[in-house]
Amino acid sequence: MSLQVDLALERGDFRLSVNGALPERGVTILFGVSGAGKSSLLKAIAGLQPCRGLIRFDDRVWQDEHQALPAHRRPVGLMLQRPTLFPHLDVAGNLRFAARRSGATDGRWREVVALTELQPLMERGVAGLSGGEAQRVALARALLTEPDLLMLDEPLSALDAERRQALMAVIARVGERLPVLYVTHQLDEVMTLGDHLWWLDRGGLREQGPLAECLAGLHGPLAAGGQAAVVLRTRHRGYDERHHLLELTLGDAVLRLPAAGPRGDTPRLKVAARDVSLALSPVRDSSVLNILPATVDALRDLGHGQCLVRLRCADQWLLARVSTLSRDRLGLRPGLALHAQIKAAALV
Amino acid sequence: MNVSPADWQALWVSVRLALISTGLLLVICTPLAWWLARRRRPGQALLESVLALPLVLPPTVLGFYLLLWLGPDGPGGLLARLWGGHSLAFTFTGLVIGSVIYSLPFVLQPLKNAFAAIDRDTLDMAATLGAPPWDRFRNVVMPLARPGYLSAAVLGFAHTLGEFGVVLMIGGSLAGETRVASVALYEHVEVGDYARAHHLALVLVVLSVAMLWGLFRWQRRPGALP
Prior knowledge:
The complex is a heterodimer of chains A (348) and B (226).
Chain A: E1 3-11, E2 14-21, E3 26-31, H1 38-46, E4 52-57, E5 60-63, E6 76-79, H2 91-102, H3 106-116, H4 131-143, E7 149-153, H5 161-175, E8 179-183, H6 187-193, E9 196-201, E10 204-210, H7 211-215, H8 221-224, E11 229-233, E12 235-240, E13 245-250, E14 253-258, E15 268-272, E16 276-279, E17 290-303, E18 306-313, E19 316-323, H9 324-330, E20 337-342, E21 346-347
Parallel strand pairs in A: 3-8, 3-9, 6-7, 7-8
Antiparallel strand pairs in A: 1-2, 1-4, 4-5, 9-10, 11-15, 12-13, 13-14, 15-21, 16-20, 17-18, 17-20, 18-19
Helix pairs in contact in A: 2-4, 3-4
Chain B: H1 5-38, H2 44-56, H3 59-70, H4 75-81, H5 92-116, H6 120-128, H7 133-144, H8 146-161, H9 165-171, H10 181-190, H11 194-220
Helix pairs in contact in B: 1-5, 1-8, 1-10, 2-5, 3-9, 5-8, 5-9, 6-7, 8-11, 10-11
């Protein structure tokens, strides 16, 4: 564990009480409806918002009942929804502000500038930057503080789809070295970037753990919003040129997916519960390409004649949304072996 | 131009007084404006009213109270005794003290507005980038408040230069010490020497216009901060 928090704060009627831990590295998505206290939590961890309780990182105490490290002494890189660059400095000046105070080396400087592709913008004033450019500067500046922890508060919400993709790739690379706490309620960002999840609900952490586990919960954050979906971690197997199908393996099974060309070694697949149907025997005469053997783990009645079924499938979780009538006809119950037909899945 | 050496001397006293007062005011008002701008505190409205009093009080009223305070029986007199004087009234030091009080709102207000306009998130960001409080103030707040500092300096300087009522009450008219340009001008008029009054007045007008012109030009400069 890297960051450990057990803190509480009040603001007016709002009460936040969070007890959580971040893994050594990887992107942890801080998920929650607006007003759940996500930004307040980030600010409390950064030392910008007074709170009570304990905050420690590895074996260093940032805050306990006796003392609180001021914000400028916490090794945290922060990036907000608005870029908040210094308007009196140019791009290079903004980066230098961070690098001088952290003592980042020239090598590190070059590495960060290359990662964020800022070289052509160095001499520009910050007023003329586009939203995507400004956020790249903000990210580079945060990285040049040599943080032990990177915290991002909806950093991509003001950007268009293409720039979001580009920056997500950069953030994912940062997450390979550092723990990253990432606030968002965009489903695509959750699926693409998330390794872990902190689900903030009604002023507390309702759930925390590996993303795939949390999403597959029958009472998970997406199930609550009626958009239940899981992430499958697959392996690249090959590409069928003739049918334009990407072949992926999931355990012993092979998944085939329309795609323009091959994608990385370990593609992630988003599978929505409504795109999964169930059959007791393997269907041979279906146009559905992906039919996997699975075992029912648990069921939840969603009301309105709908039922959410959690399935174990090649050591991963799958959710299926079926009608209560189908549940009764098929006799769905925990332990039942059946076949899951995946009607649609998206690479994320 | 027919400006006598005595008038030049009076102008120099005015400029010196304005420079010293403005410098002191910038130093005094920086922490005060910062403190007032950042958050509401109990008693703040009362304090701000007192500090703004020179805006509305007739200068002679202010001058009268200052005369009492700076005189031999006031705190100013006690202070003067520390270095062997017996009063701060009718001294250049007394004038500086009077000017600082009289021009304070003109320096305080622009600084306060400039500080209040600085975004909280920008300062928070500076903190997470590793800048301790003084560093944040010096390298973020002050550069961002630069237009405010310039307005404050010009307004403080111009207002002190034009001061008359207060000077008359506490300064008198000692050549080279407390006779400032506005008082010299008044004396020319009093004895009917309109020609010299004209010249001195013209110098003051040109000086004031030049300062304000410089300020507005700078504020409209393309690279100037909002």
